[in-house]
Amino acid sequence: VMQSSANLSAGAEARRISDLPAGVREGADLLIDGGELPGVASTVLDLYDYQRTGSWSILREGAMAHEQIERALR
Asked: Quick check: helix, strand or coil at residue 26?
């Protein structure tokens, strides 16, 4: 997602994957379902080289803890 949030500009916060607009879901290479999230910012990951090298980084810390992301990406 090339934006600061997983919702559309000025749209409601996406607290569940089902809250994301279909276009955002369809454009994502990977969706990690952390269940319903509290009203905090989305965690934004850089997965540019993930498929090729397995490397990833957190661009913005949010509701999902680093350890949860590591477990989901294994």
From this structure: helix
Residue 30 near residue 47, CB atoms below 8 Å: yes
Degrees, nearest 5: CA angle 10-18-38: 70
Cβ 12 vs Cβ 19: under 8 Å: yes
The contacts of residue 12 (CB under 8 Å, 6+ apart) are 19
In the numeric block, the tokens 């934006």 are attached to 3
pTM above 0.70, yes or no: no
List the pLDDT tens digit at each of the 74 positions of the chain.
444 556 666 566 777 888 888 888 888 888 888 788 766 677 888 999 999 999 999 987 777 889 999 999 88
Q: In whole angstroms, what is the distance from residue 69 CA to residue 39 CA? A: 19
